[in-house]
């Protein structure tokens, strides 16, 4: 079923996942298309961004943002077209970044919208990634917390993902040695051949730690952490004194229901922080750096215009495929930034 | 046996401790007093500082400093008097801070010495603590990494110790709410009544976590970590967003030989760093802040002169008691900064 003018498809969270989400946690329903009132806009979703952080919001554990409500449409960043406008600042046909969520149509009063104009319209979906939240996360985490210096070694996990691929490329632009970590040979080849990383290690190999050591002969100065789990345990012994660890995600742990049993690695981590004088810092991009979006957007747009960045999307057609694509993403099945093409007839895309 | 003019008592590391050190790891021997050559000084030790970091140097695990050598005299900071000088910058009777180690006499070529002059001579031993390494650690870790703001809550472990007692008092001077954690009721009372902390929780109580929660009703903004272990697990859930954790010691883990078994708390810690956007940073005072000693010394001397700081030493007489005092310190038996009075007849002390 494709997007129609007559009704609004929505994906509803029907129950909270316990561990990995399953298709039973989601339901597709159909509602009438809403009508904008005075000062409102009707937005039609073209692209929906699917991101690991959403797994956190499906649980009701205390977190930095409100959980999604059971029975409600799932939230998420979207690129949308203005279908009807009763708002003085927007007219029909405008492209915007919105938080319309997992549905075809949404009303907006204009707050929080970001109008897309100029070169970004060549790839409107990039406003959700390279020139949007995930690129912003990569840019600020690497440059502000990681503070990489020419000649230093930067290691990034999920190396071909929406954040990791950008972290590594910016680190290369800054003159660093970059070693990625990714799942599978194909992704590793891509990181080296297309993204220009110096090396990429397959985390599915048993000798991950040895491989990493071999390809970081001068140790690791910056580890951009967006994965957690066993990758972290392989990285820690290689961290150099005064190393920096920006931490923006822990996808390996998002589906965990209990703490792992066995050895408690916490004292090891604390000991490393002390002995190596590490700086470990978590950040939530919009809360910590919201006021620096323009700086990021300007610099990143310039790099894009100069063809200095490669970016890969994993595009999945049709809203009804979003739950399966999301479940797969948490298992590492996507290759590139996962985006749902919700409107198959979008005007203006090239 | 007291300090003599005729021979040099020394405490030798005869074997590396496995787990907690025992008296069998140490041996007292006696050597001739060395004679200074051209450009050298003979220093007579008056006070020897005993500090938790020394436990790390008794092992040969990779660390930020060289381990002590087996068969050699143990190293350590000392306050000493110049007995003989063949060095143009020093004369007999000068007081200095030196790294003479666990012995009565040491030669020096003047490098790394710090001459004591003026008001600090009222309490020469404070040059090893309040106005020396431990005070410097407290000052820089709290102010530079912790960055406490008026009205914020600062929690400090080992609250009556050489570092913790100073951290808490500086935080009070900066207008913070200060809650200490210490071992036993006597220490807790001291922290509240003498050091002026708002509260102090006994970490030996079963309800440590609840007590801490009750006395930090607005959460914790800065946790000055110098202990590790279970105290950390009680603090973590109370950390506020954008909280800071300067980390300068992990005495609870220093005697550990294996990682604890049971749950792996590492994902919990990483998750908290992410969700709460914490900054966790290790530091080694002289390596990270060596160039700011003067700033510290000037400010701290002023607070001391204005009677705004209380400081307690745990003074133990005679060098031969150093091993037992050191072993006890790692068990929390000291109450205040542990110092060995090596010279019982020291001139100039008041």
Describe the structure.
The structure is a homodimer of 350-residue chains. Chain A has 350 residues and is α/β, with parallel strands linked by helices. The first copy, chain A, has helices spanning 53-58, 133-146, 164-173, 185-193, 208-215, 230-235, 266-275, 285-289, 293-305, 322-330, and strands spanning 7-13, 26-32, 41-49, 78-85, 95-98, 105-108, 114-116, 153-156, 177-182, 199-202, 220-224, 239-247, 261-263, 279-282, 313-317, 337-341. Chain A folds into 2 domains: 7-129 and 311-341, Medium-chain alcohol dehydrogenases, catalytic domain (Quinone Oxidoreductase, Chain A, domain 1, Alpha-Beta Complex), CATH 3.90.180.10; 133-287, Rossmann fold, CATH 3.40.50. Chain A contains 10 helices and 16 strands. In chain A, strands 3, 4, 5, 6, 7, 15 and 16 form a 7-stranded mixed beta sheet that branches. The first copy, chain A, has a 6-stranded parallel beta sheet with strand order 10-9-8-11-12-14, sandwiched between helices. In chain A, strands 1-2 form a two-stranded antiparallel ribbon. The first copy, chain A, is globular. The interface between A and B is large, with 41 and 41 residues.
CATH domain class name of the largest domain in chain A: Alpha Beta
**CATH architecture descriptor text of the largest domain in chain A:** 3-Layer(aba) Sandwich
- Report the span from N to C terminus of chain A: 24 Å
Helix content of chain A: 25-40%
Question: What's the rounded overall pLDDT mean of chain A?
Answer: 91
Helical segment tally of chain A?
10
Poorly predicted regions of chain A: none
State the largest interface.
A-B, 41 and 41 residues
Number of domains of chain A: 2
Radius of gyration of chain A: 21 Å
Total strand count of chain A, please? Answer: 16
State the CATH superfamily name of the largest domain in chain A.
NAD(P)-binding Rossmann-like Domain
Derived structural class of chain A = alpha/beta
In one word, what is the shape of chain A?
globular
Largest sheet of chain A, in brief, is: 7 strands, mixed
